[in-house]
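User: Structure tokens for both sequences below?

Assistant:
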Amino acid sequence: MSSKIKQEKWDIRATKKLFQESLKKGLEDEKKQIKLPEHTVKIDELDRELTLDRINNLT
């Protein structure tokens, strides 16, 4: 019975450690984001058809 309790404690510690590592990694990823100039429009913010029209006009 004691081995089961030890195993559960270990699992909780391992889970906590993994959670903390993922939080740290998330913060590092946020810092790595590219900062674009003010008037830059991200493609995700545009409509699909408008984006295709702009691409076709460039080529």
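Moving on to the next sequence.
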Amino acid sequence: MQEEKAQRKRRKRQRIKERGGLESFGSKPPLSGLSDIAAMNHDDES
């Protein structure tokens, strides 16, 4: 179970990285990136 959560988190980080990560926030709708980060933070809490 724990391993699965770690894999999901890693995949999410990879997706953000592929999209350009923080650098590209200014060039696309802010919410798309911010919601990813919010989801990642939520994962860390649960």
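User: Anything stand out in the second?

Assistant: The chain has a mean pLDDT of 69.
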